Amino acid sequence: MSRIIAGAAGGTTLSSVPGSGTRPTTDRVKEALFSRLESYEILSGAYVLDLFAGSGSLGVESASRGAARVDLVELAEKAAGVCRSNAGLVNRVLGKERVRVHRAKAETYLLRVPEGLAWDLVFLDPPYDLDEDGLAGVLQALTAHLAPGAVVVVERSTRSPEPVWPDGLERFSERAYGETTLWFAEPAQTEPAQPGDAKG
User: Fold this and answer.
1) Integer angstrom CA distances of residue 32 from 29, 80, 146, 166, 181
2) pTM of the prediction?
3) Exposed, middle or buried by CB within 10 Å (0-12, 13-18, 19+), for 140?
4) Superfamily of domain 2-6+27-187
5) Helix count and strand count (H, E) for the chain
6) Domain assignments of the chain as residue spans, ordered by start
7) Distance CA 135, CA 146 (A)
8) Which of 3, 101, 146, 172 is a good FRET partner for 89, with 20 to 30 A between their CA atoms?
9) pLDDT digits (tens, 9 = 90+) for 100-131
10) What number of other Cβ atoms are within 10 A of residue 128's Cβ?
């Protein structure tokens, strides 16, 4: 059973995705991830994209913690239904429609992004059957839709290799939590970094 850990909707119990082939983010990993994101001061007012959203738990956690807009993208019918349920719960608590659900393939959704829409924070937790080339293609399509200073978080099994980062996106950190590794990336800097720029 998953829950929202903190923020305006903290403690809300979330529906989970039934079936196999998914890798739900544990509360332990989620807590560590959001502790780090809070230290970046990126959540308040952020535009957040949760690709391969599953139950949408990372996206709705972001909304609870102050994100201005959250887009959950999920192709599987049952999982998209769970996303809609969890989004509805959070939107009702917040009193605003901050979380939207899009049933689509990640690549297709990114090709249809409205001009001018850019995200400050992106989560990617791809299913087991998405190979490294497939993930690299999604990351490539994503680069055109990132705001300056954006953070991209890729969640993978510790047995998976580091993602292939496209031009325009570079890793700045990674953290392993048991069977899960989180990879952190940001838009590539076009100018020399200034003291204090590194997120760590």
Assistant:
1) 5, 25, 23, 26, 12
2) 0.92
3) middle
4) Vaccinia Virus protein VP39 (3.40.50.150)
5) 5, 9
6) 2-6+27-187
7) 17
8) 146
9) 999 999 999 999 998 889 999 999 999 877 88
10) 12
